[in-house]
Design goal:
By secondary structure, the protein is of the alpha/beta class. It has a single domain, classed as Nitrilase/N-carbamoyl-D-aminoacid amidohydrolase. The chain starts with a strand and ends in a 32-residue tail after the last helix.
C-alpha cells in the first residue's frame, strides 16, 4: 500500500503581500519537513483585503506576481507539489481580476491554473455584503490536473456549494479534490464540515480543504478548521480552530476505487439539469381522511 503524505496550510492572510508570502513559506517549509509531498494553501494566500478598491492597485499580471514567483522557487527548493489555493491576478481580457489557483510541480514549473467559477455574491448576516463578481471575473472551465501519483480536481471556496462541479471532476478521473477556502465565520460554523464531507462522500475522492482562519486586517472573520477528508467521509486531519499552522495526513489512494466500488453512484446518470419537472399542486390530491378524537 503506497501512501501519499499531504498537508493543508491554515493561514490568516492580511493586507501586506510580503508578510503573507513569508508566513505561507514558513509553514510550507514546516509541512515539507514533516514529509508532505503535496501541500495546499488557502484561498487568497497572498492578499486578503475585501475593502472596496483597496486591493486593486496591488494586483498585477500573473508573470509579474511576486507571490507566484516565490512559491515556484520554493516548490523547486523543497521538491514538493504545491497547490497555491488562490492569488488575485490581473485578467488579460477583463478590467476585473481573476481569483486563480495554481498547481506547481517539484521542479518549479506551473502545471495547471484554475479560475474560480462561482462568485461569492451574498449577504450572510455578519454585517458585511460580499460581491466578488464586481472585482473578479468568473472562470469558465473546470480543471483536472495530472500528477504522477493522482489526478487533482481544482476548485476554490464558494465552488463547494455546487456539487455538479465535483461530480464532473470525479467522473473525469479525479482522485483528490482541492477546495482552498476563506469561509466566513457564520457560514463556516453552519456548513463547512457538512459540505466538505458531503463532496468527499458524493464523489468517492479525498478532499484537501485548506482554509483561512481568524480576524483579518481588513475586518473579515474566517472560520478556519482546515480539513483533510477520506473518500468515505472520514476526517483524517483537522486544524484546531482558527490558528495558523499545518495539518498532515497520509492518503491511501486505493481507497478511492474502494469507496466507489462500495457506493457506485458516479456510474449512474444524474444529469437533471434540463429535465422537465412536474409540479403537483395540493388540490390535485384528495383530502386526507379526517381524524376523530373522542
Amino acid at each position: 500500500m503506497a501512501l501519499l503524505r499531504t498537508a493543508c496550510i491554515q493561514m490568516r492572510s492580511g493586507t501586506r503581500i510580503e508578510h503573507n508570502i513569508r508566513d505561507a513559506s514558513d509553514v510550507i517549509r514546516e509541512a515539507a519537513a514533516l514529509g508532505a509531498q503535496l501541500i495546499a494553501t488557502p484561498e487568497m494566500t497572498s492578499l486578503l483585503d475585501i475593502r472596496p478598491g483597496k486591493a486593486a492597485a496591488r494586483i498585477v499580471a500573473e508573470n509579474e506576481d511576486k507571490a507566484l514567483s516565490a512559491f515556484k522557487a520554493l516548490a523547486q527548493e523543497l521538491g514538493v507539489w504545491l497547490v497555491i489555493g488562490s492569488l488575485p491576478v490581473r485578467h488579460a481580457q477583463d478590467t476585473r481580476a481573476a481569483n486563480r489557483s495554481f498547481l506547481i510541480a517539484p521542479n518549479g514549473s506551473l502545471q495547471a491554473r484554475y479560475d474560480k467559477i462561482h462568485m461569492f455574491d451574498v449577504d450572510v448576516g455578519d454585517g458585511q455584503s460580499y460581491r466578488e463578481s464586481t472585482a473578479y471575473r468568473p472562470g469558465q472551465h473546470a480543471i483536472l490536473a495530472d500528477m504522477p501519483f493522482a489526478k487533482l480536481g481544482m476548485s476554490i471556496c464558494y465552488d463547494l456549494r455546487f456539487p455538479s462541479l465535483y461530480r464532473a471532476l470525479a467522473q473525469a478521473g479525479a482522485d483528490i479534490l482541492c477546495i482552498p477556502s476563506a469561509f466566513t465565520r457564520i457560514t463556516g460554523e453552519a456548513h463547512w464540515h457538512v459540505l466538505v464531507r458531503a463532496r468527499a462522500i458524493e464523489t468517492g475522492t479525498f478532499v484537501l480543504a485548506p482554509a483561512q482562519g481568524g480576524q483579518h486586517e481588513d475586518g473579515r472573520r474566517t472560520f478556519g478548521h482546515s480539513l483533510i477528508v477520506s473518500p468515505w467521509g472520514e476526517i483524517l486531519a483537522e486544524a484546531e480552530g482558527t490558528e495558523p499552522g499545518v495539518i498532515v495526513a497520509d492518503l491511501d489512494l486505493d481507497a478511492v476505487a474502494e469507496a466507489r466500488r462500495r457506493v457506485p453512484s458516479l456510474m449512474m446518470s444524474s444529469d437533471w439539469t434540463n429535465a422537465a419537472v412536474t409540479v403537483v399542486a395540493w388540490q390535485d390530491h384528495p383530502m386526507p381522511p379526517q381524524i376523530s378524537r373522542e
